[in-house]
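Researcher: Next sequence.
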Amino acid sequence: MNKLACNEEIITLTRSSTNFLNEAQDLIESIASKFITSGSFRHEEKDDLIQTINEELLYKMPKIRQQFLGISSFRGYLSVVIQNICREKIRRNKSIRTTELTDIHFNQSEELNPEHVIVIQQEVERLKKLLLLYNKQRTKIILCLKLKFRIPLNICDLSTYLGKINKKEYKEFKEKLKNYNKIKDVDIYEAIIPLFNKFENKNNNADSLRKWIKLKINELIELLNGDPPISSFDEDTLQILFEKYISLNP
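Model: Next structure:
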């Protein structure tokens, strides 16, 4: 087919949005499924992804008609356009969850809209499932994250991982944590490490605990972001998410 005939076919096809989208549905379905299989989107997001592709294609119809040069098949050209739409949605998704969580954190006095509520629930549920993967380490990780992020503790928080804590030990620990929100991380780790060593029958120091906590934080961030990435969590946004998790799972 020569370039003129090819362009006439595209003009005819794109003149009707209904015909255009009907012809493109099998290609849209195929490409969306590949991105889901690769892990770029969750399976439950498939309908939303397909709807987004359709909406973007409608918006881009004039540009598609103008820019297609007939060098390759129209199906091949359209495949590239659809893949680019998916990649752009991945890019947006990488920041939307963490951005909304940050917005929610700094605007807690404002009434949450339903979309924000869904974002919180989805991300908290993901974090909850990830923490469950750590099995016996889970309670220690939660305790250490509370310390790292300066979430108030009581004796039950300690005994959940460390077993029965006597009042003297708890009083000494609390005494070391005066000005809890202002003291350095190293001082907190120095305060808790004797209790960990007693319970675990080890002789670790505060720096080894610091490295362990940092490792677990990095692991959680990596798991939350996904491979390929679907979010863009860092330590600050993990803290926001963890605080929400604690508030919903006291």
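Model: The two ends are 67 Å apart (CA to CA). Residues 1-12, 104-110 have pLDDT under 50 and may be disordered.
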